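Why should sequence recovery work at all? Because a backbone constrains its sequence more than one might expect. Tight turns favour small or flexible residues, buried strands favour hydrophobic ones, and helices have their own preferences. The token representation captures these environments compactly. In the example below, the structure is given first.
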């Protein structure tokens, strides 16, 4: 139980009672499962149970960090000593401190489902097998490269000498399928997925059917003519693009000179119809909790609202460095108890437009529907925003999907993309890959596509 983790945090804190600095203890206990199947057989079942405590010690602007996977009193005391020793040899930083304890935390219910840890592994395997079988049942699907079930059940507690004391828990799971369709020598790939908080939320058939449909409709793909198109980003592609944008919206990136949004707060950076929030309290998000990873209450933070950049994401350190009335936005994040916190988005939410994808395509009329891109993180410049990526998708003709397209390149810059958002649908979906993003399909005008 999370209360047990609080007790471990208090025990660790007590081991540093004779020290003059501030102490923060982050305690984590997770259970994870990853299952892959192939050809109707189980390929791998990997279960993990990461459990440990991380200690951050701050004294006179010097910060030290240490961790342990052993929850005994002796091991916790050793972690506290090592954190203090590490701080003693660190360079002082005037902005380093622990957050002060909040008066209260927001109440976010429904994040923990006991059905997830209670579900037998055989049932989880059956979901991955069912998704694979459904994809293979579609004509022209030759193989399923990968069908997988993934879940996590995580409990966290944070206790500090500054008065912070909080605990929370969350479950999440998903099934994803990658299918190959073949027509002669032409082979195309499609991916489908479903998400939920427990296995009973997952419709494996839907994931398999989606993967098959996406693969089959790309058969016969060829480069399209070079030109300037209205591009419609599929939700997975939009999630990748806006997730990359959000990394440039952290105060850490701006303060280190690694962001195209430096000195842009209060200015128009996107089309008036575009809004983007960071919402650590959204009930459907994968990063939802009452608090961030240093115990600051989560909240909903407007990043871009009606096209105007309203603010940046902060943790306690970047807020102190910014000065004035700036406070943490509750965006401290860490990979596990083994690492100290840094600034990162929680749940990103793009404001939806109207109608489904078909409605959006009708409104666009003519353009290019992008279902996959390659090279975003390697081909994009975080400071200038310029990027060049490979793209796969389908032409839009007469307001509907037409010929499949591959081997083309999209070149632009992130600010131009944001400023040229021309329409959005209302088909928002949570995307679990590379973050936690809820976005609809998005239309962007005047984008250069290099093909034939």
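From this structural description, the recovered sequence reads:
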């Amino acid at each position: 139980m999370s209360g047990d983790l609080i007790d471990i945090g208090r025990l660790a804190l007590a081991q540093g009672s004779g020290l003059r600095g501030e102490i923060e203890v982050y305690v984590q206990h997770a259970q994870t499962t990853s299952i892959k199947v192939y050809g109707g057989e189980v390929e791998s079942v990997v279960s993990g149970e990461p459990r440990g405590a991380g200690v951050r010690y701050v004294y006179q602007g010097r910060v030290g960090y240490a961790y342990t996977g052993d929850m005994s009193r002796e091991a916790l005391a050793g972690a506290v000593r090592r954190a203090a020793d590490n701080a003693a040899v660190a360079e002082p930083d005037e902005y380093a401190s622990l957050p002060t304890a909040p008066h209260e935390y927001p109440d976010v219910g429904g994040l923990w489902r006991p059905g997830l840890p209670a579900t037998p592994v055989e049932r989880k395997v059956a979901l991955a097998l069912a998704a694979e079988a459904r994809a293979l049942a579609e004509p022209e699907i030759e193989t399923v490269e990968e069908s997988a079930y993934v879940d996590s059940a995580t409990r966290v507690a944070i206790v500090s000498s500054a008065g912070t004391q909080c605990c929370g828990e969350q479950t999440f799971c998903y099934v994803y399928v990658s299918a190959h369709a073949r027509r002669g020598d032409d082979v195309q790939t499609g991916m489908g997925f479903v998400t939920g908080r427990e296995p009973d939320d997952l419709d494996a058939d839907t994931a398999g059917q989606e993967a098959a449909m996406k693969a089959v409709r790309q058969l016969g793909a060829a480069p399209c003519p070079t030109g300037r198109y209205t591009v419609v980003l599929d939700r997975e592609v939009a999630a990748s693009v806006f997730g990359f944008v959000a990394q440039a919206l952290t105060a850490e990136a701006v303060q280190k000179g690694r962001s195209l949004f430096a000195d842009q707060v209060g200015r128009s950076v996107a089309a008036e119809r575009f809004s983007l929030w960071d919402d650590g309290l959204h009930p459907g998000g994968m990063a939802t909790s009452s608090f961030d990873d240093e115990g600051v209450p989560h909240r909903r933070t407007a990043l871009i609202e009606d096209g105007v950049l309203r603010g940046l994401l902060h943790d306690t350190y970047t807020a102190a460095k910014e000065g004035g009335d700036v406070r943490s936005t509750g965006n401290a994040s860490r990979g596990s108890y083994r690492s100290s916190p840094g600034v990162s988005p929680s749940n990103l939410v793009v404001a939806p437009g109207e109608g489904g994808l078909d409605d959006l395509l009708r409104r666009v009329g003519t353009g290019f529907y992008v279902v996959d891109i390659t090279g975003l993180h390697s081909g994009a410049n975080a400071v200038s925003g310029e990027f060049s990526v490979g793209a796969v998708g389908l032409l839009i003709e007469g307001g509907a999907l037409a010929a499949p397209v591959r081997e083309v390149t999209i070149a632009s810059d992130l600010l131009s993309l944001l400023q040229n958002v021309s329409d959005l649908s209302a088909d928002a979906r949570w995307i679990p890959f590379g973050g936690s993003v809820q976005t609809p399909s998005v239309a962007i005008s005047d984008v250069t596509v290099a093909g034939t």
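A few observations help interpret the result. The first strand starts at residue 22 and ends at 38.
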